[in-house]
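G., the chain you wanted modeled:
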Amino acid sequence: MSAPLPPLSDDVEPTRATLHAYAHAVGAIPRAHGAAHPKWWHISLKLHPTGLSTDAVPLPDGGALALRMDMNAGAVVIETSHGDTSTVPMDAGLTATELGDALIASVAEYGLTGEYNREKFENDDPRPYDGAHAAAFFAVLTAVDQVFTAHRATLTGEIGPTQLWPHGFDLAFEWFGTRVEEYDEDGEMTRYPSQLNLGFYPAGRAYFYSNPWPFEGDQLTDHPLPGGAEWHTEGWEGSILYYDQIAGNPDGRDTLAAYARAVYDLAAPTLTA
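Predicted structure as tokens:
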């Protein structure tokens, strides 16, 4: 039997908010120097056994650099393909502005200089950080990622990577349907592929979401979802399953997997040309 999804206590929130603020600063580096992806995947973070890592960023000398929010070290670790390593502490009470400035100074030592979108991370609020809470929060992300990975393996077609987005600090991936929608944007017709995400939003009352786009409510909302999940149509359209409904339950992972599969099975036909 797999381990239950670990509880997410209210005590974690101050440290989670600090990690969120710091993720904006970390993401500013690949935003400025990474190979731009049309879906902005280059600014996201990926789960690593010890934390949250950027994709490799090319260095002027032909090498590469990556930044990792290391929950074991309590620091942002900067590593290069040449074996160089430097760190900026996350447990020293730095504001997001101070952490961002320190990261920019650190990567400059490896030849990365330029303009940074500072409004993404500049914030001078105090930033508490508790190592035990950071580890507990990361344990939740790791467990959720394992269920997402297993679910992704059952899908066919075009699938994006599981990513931690600095903006919302949510962990998610997207499955793309074959249906295409066209919209008039400033006089130009733009084509968007249909898609279905599966994500985890950890702030406040944490929840899972799986939201088809376009949302064909008349074909979806009459169908019940498993494990206490519900269709959501106020403010945003999709489905929701609160984390505290399944965390700690012996079958919590199975419930999450069943929820993800149910939404996919119902939505995929509406997103296929």
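The two ends are 39 Å apart (CA to CA).

Shout if anything looks off.
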